[in-house]
């Protein structure tokens, strides 16, 4: 059933999108209730799928007068409740904007539309001998629009850095329909205004709609070696991480799976022979062949000296994939174990790793909640996953309480809320734990400058960002 | 089973991660998340939980699914999407929320009576034999009009007396009634490789037709095949169509594994066909969805493809659906054509003289043939089953050094 209000909204949307699609039926909205945080459902009033960038700009021109929130959405894989209609309104799904417009191998940049899939871009770049380094685990499906909006990271960001290191320019459409280019192929090397792109990156849809990006590329590494080592305890694992970080080989990735993650993998059909109770480290080094080959033995030796008698390494693709297997399988296996899970994304100083992990175990055990840790150890980006069943009364509340205590400890040790997933509406409640009132006010003034009524993606990042029509 | 009657846990291991979106043909086509596995599961689970009333859009998005099962391969949480989809589709048909096209309902009734079906398609076999097939799905071929595969296999078994492993071959309904030349080629290839072939009596359609359409009768067909194949003392049950093999595999008890005939030959190491050095043929191999996503095979063994003697390579996007989807190209022709258009475009530029598009499912072959017949591909190409590329022809003998059991 459609109410008169909805049908009038539908008519307005259809007028704004003559070529794209407008979805308003209950069964058309249901598919857009959640992102990767599947248990939280927020139904929009409508969903629009613009046919192309021009139509998206046209839509934005009239969006202000709709008088409802506007929420941008790519593939909806985010884990923080970002691209959902927390305050109702219209979801703008950018699935049709998937053109790779240019790959410039002389200037080492590419121009892509916001709906291009990350791995699709990788596949298109590979024959040119170049790559785009950020590599969130959702790569097979996530879009660059979502990557830029959440300043996505990934396993190899330890050396390569996150999305913001690779965005040269952003084309954005404001709620008045005006189209702005912040930067471009020449990146930040222009007048001061150029670096306004930094406002856009990580803005989680609170400022503007993105239509296209200019991204920096790097030459593909000549050689990659992957190492897998297991450790009997946290102390030796930590020693290995510290030694790796300080080592001149400068690993591209340092990933870790805790004993609970190892147990999960080993009791599944993805078992790969990891010792029971062990901590697993996965390390990758890459670069010019002669240079990287010369470092292989010293990395292996370092891993052994830290306390591992189980070090494997390879430069062959098939074997490297096997070494990655446990790490890659871990994320998906969570879904086989539990109907729902919350994954935290805190970043902590590495010296506090053991302390914070212990807190996760103690709190989860006390509440009888299963917790699995699989994360980017090199840069201290934790991903404790708390598994629960949202249909069991009280379980979600327990997980939320543990999360809050964890966040408090993270802040006490000098860490912060999110390394790569964004704040969305899942972590917005923790913002005041990190930022004082002055800082919150200053940060809020940015979205307020771009859309004063907070019509773009309200109730995200800051709990107080309500849209008032 | 109705969506209401499904156990609540049925949907629960979908964590909404979205990995299925990137591989779903209808999501790629429409960009509408409801038209993806994650979206459909959400619609079905919300309806089952009573939070979403029955809605014609739920019916629409359900009917849009090709059933390719690429989402099952992509799913890290092992959601049994195919099984859930089959239940929902059957329920939608049973409760008149969806009505398969008349031609499909008639065909579904006909395949349950193999004798009748074979007789009804006799004129079609005649036309194909005479090179007069004109329908967009009917690829050329010369099926035997009267002699059955069972009779032919008996004849060849008597003549050649192979001594190797014993296999029971599923001859299928459409394969036997329309594309019998592929069954004949399968028998020849197996026997030439010293494999003993039996064609069990009383076998019928695998049930895939009913599964694809959501119509009743699948259990009757499954019972029939359990009786025909269940108690056989053979080394393997083989099928030359990935879809039929997948459906029969779901029917038989664990331990009675159904093998794709090409996978089975791969383990034996098939005899290699010799081709002239100057042969400019290029074979582009497409992998059927129900082989790689249904039967979860990693592909078609390279030694089998090498044994064709031709220069071969995987077609671009070989693991993506061609749009055939069993009967999807009849039920949803516009979608099926759009999916095929993207997948077949490479043929226009593909190198080789002649160019052969080869796969291991007759229904995919029909779809691939339609790319030329409907103008999606403008250059000439042939569509062949891979077993046909291994075919020794009528005059062959079993080499004396063949593997023994």
What does this structure look like?
The complex is a heterodimer of chains A (469) and B (405). Chain A contains 15 helices and 18 strands. Chain A is α+β, with helices and mostly antiparallel strands and 469 residues long. The longest helix of chain A has 21 residues, at 317-337. Chain B folds into three domains: 8-94, Alpha-helical ferredoxin (Fumarate Reductase Iron-sulfur Protein, Chain B, domain 2, Orthogonal Bundle), CATH 1.10.1060; 108-268, no CATH class; 282-389. In chain B, 44% of the residues lie in helices and 8% in strands. Chain B contains 21 helices and eight strands. Chain B has helices spanning 25-30, 37-48, 56-64, 70-74, 81-94, 102-111, 114-120, 122-129, 149-160, 174-177, 180-192, 208-213, 218-229, 242-251, 261-268, 289-294, 302-307, 328-331, 333-344, 362-373, 386-389; strands at 166-170, 196-198, 236-239, 258-260, 282-285, 311-314, 355-359, 382-385. In chain B, the strands form two sheets. In chain B, strands 2-1-3-4 form a four-stranded parallel beta sheet, sandwiched between helices. In chain B, strands 6-5-7-8 form a four-stranded parallel beta sheet. In chain B, α20 (362-373) links the parallel β7 (355-359) and β8 (382-385). The N and C termini of chain B lie far apart (45 Å). The mean pLDDT of chain B is 93. Classes of the chains: A alpha+beta (469), B alpha/beta (405).
């Amino acid at each position: 059933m459609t109410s008169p209000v909805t049908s009038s909204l539908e008519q307005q949307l259809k007028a704004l999108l003559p070529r794209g699609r407008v979805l308003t039926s209950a069964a058309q909205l249901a598919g857009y209730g959640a992102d990767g945080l599947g248990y939280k459902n927020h139904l929009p009033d409508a969903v629009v799928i613009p046919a192309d960038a021009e139509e998206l700009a046209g839509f934005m021109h009239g969006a202000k007068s709709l008088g409802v929130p506007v929420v941008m959405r790519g593939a909806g894989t985010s884990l923080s409740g970002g691209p959902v209609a927390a305050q109702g309104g219209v979801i703008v799904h950018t699935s049709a904007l998937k053109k790779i417009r240019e790959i410039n191998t002389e200037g080492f940049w590419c121009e892509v539309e916001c709906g291009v899939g990350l791995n699709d871009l990788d596949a298109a770049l590979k024959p040119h001998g170049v790559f785009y380094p950020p590599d969130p685990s959702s790569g097979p499906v996530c879009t660059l629009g979502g990557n830029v909006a959440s300043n996505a990271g990934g396993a190899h960001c330890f050396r390569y850095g996150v999305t913001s290191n690779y965005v040269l320019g952003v084309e954005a459409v404001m709620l008045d329909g005006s189209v702005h280019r912040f930067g471009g192929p020449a990146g930040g090397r222009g007048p001061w205004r150029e670096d306004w792109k930094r406002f856009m990156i990580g803005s989680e849809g609170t400022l503007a709609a993105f239509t296209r990006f200019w991204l920096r590329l790097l030459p593909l590494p000549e050689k990659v070696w992957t190492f897998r080592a297991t450790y009997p305890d946290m102390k030796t694992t930590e020693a290995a991480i510290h030694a790796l970080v300080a080592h001149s080989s400068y690993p591209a990735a340092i990933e870790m799976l805790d004993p609970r993650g190892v147990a999960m993998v080993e009791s599944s059909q993805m078992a790969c022979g990891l010792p029971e109770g062990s901590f697993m480290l996965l390390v990758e080094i890459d670069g010019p062949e002669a240079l990287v080959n010369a470092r292989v033995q010293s990395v292996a030796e370092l891993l052994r000296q830290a306390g591992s008698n189980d070090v494997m390494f390879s430069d062959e693709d098939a074997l490297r994939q096997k070494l990655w297997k446990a790490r890659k399988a871990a994320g998906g296996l969570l879904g086989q174990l539990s109907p729902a899970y919350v994954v935290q994304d805190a970043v902590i100083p590495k010296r506090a790793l053991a302390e914070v992990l212990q807190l996760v175990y103690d709190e989860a055990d006390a509440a009888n909640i299963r917790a699995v840790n699989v994360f980017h150890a090199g840069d201290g980006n934790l991903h404790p996953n708390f598994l629960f069943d949202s249909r069991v009364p009280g379980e979600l509340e327990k997980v939320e309480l543990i999360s809050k205590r964890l966040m408090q400890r993270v802040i006490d040790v000098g860490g912060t809320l999110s390394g790569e997933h964004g704040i969305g509406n899942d972590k917005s409640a923790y913002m005041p734990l990190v930022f004082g009132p002055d800082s919150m006010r200053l940060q809020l003034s940015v979205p307020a400058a771009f859309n004063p009524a907070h019509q773009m993606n309200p109730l995200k990042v800051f709990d107080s960002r309500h849209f008032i029509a | 089973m109705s969506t209401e009657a499904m156990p609540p846990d049925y949907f629960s291991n979908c964590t909404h991660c979205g990995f299925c979106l990137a591989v779903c043909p209808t999501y790629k086509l429409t960009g509408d998340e409801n038209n993806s596995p994650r979206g459909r599961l959400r619609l079905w689970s919300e309806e089952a939980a009573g939070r979403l009333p029955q809605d014609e859009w739920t019916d629409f998005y359900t009917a849009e699914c090709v059933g390719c099962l690429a989402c099952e391969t992509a799913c890290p949480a092992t959601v049994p999407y195919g099984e859930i989809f089959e239940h929902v589709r059957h329920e939608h048909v049973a409760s008149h929320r969806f009505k398969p096209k008349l031609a499909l309902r008639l065909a579904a009734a006909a395949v349950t009576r193999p004798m009748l079906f074979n007789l009804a398609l006799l004129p079609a076999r005649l036309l194909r034999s005479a090179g007069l097939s004109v329908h967009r799905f009917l690829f050329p071929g010369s099926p035997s009009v009267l002699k059955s595969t069972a009779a032919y296999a008996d004849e060849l078994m008597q003549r050649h007396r192979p001594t190797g492993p014993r296999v029971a071959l599923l001859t299928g309904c459409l394969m036997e009634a329309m594309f019998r030349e592929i069954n004949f080629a399968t028998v020849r290839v197996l026997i030439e490789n010293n494999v003993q072939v039996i064609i069990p009596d009383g076998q019928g359609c695998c049930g895939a037709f009913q599964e694809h359409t959501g119509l009743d009768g699948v259990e009757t067909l499954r019972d029939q095949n359990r009786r025909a194949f269940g108690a056989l003392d053979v080394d393997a049950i083989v099928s030359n169509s990935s879809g039929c093999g997948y459906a029969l595999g779901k029917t038989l008890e664990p331990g009675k594994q159904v093998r794709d005939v090409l996978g089975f030959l791969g383990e034996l190491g098939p005899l290699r066909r010799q081709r002239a050095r100057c042969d400019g043929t290029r074979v582009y191999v497409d992998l059927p969805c129900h082989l790689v996503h249904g039967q979860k095979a990693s592909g078609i063994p390279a030694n089998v493809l090498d044994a064709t003697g031709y220069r071969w390579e995987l077609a671009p996007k070989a693991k993506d659906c061609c749009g055939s989807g069993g009967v999807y190209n009849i039920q949803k022709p516009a979608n099926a054509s759009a999916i095929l258009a993207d997948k077949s475009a490479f043929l226009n530029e593909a190198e080789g003289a002649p160019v052969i598009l080869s796969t291991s499912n007759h229904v995919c072959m029909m779809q691939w043939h339609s790319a030329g017949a409907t103008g999606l591909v403008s250059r000439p190409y042939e569509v062949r089953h891979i077993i046909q590329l291994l075919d020794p022809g009528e005059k062959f003998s079993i080499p004396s050094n063949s593997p023994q059991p």
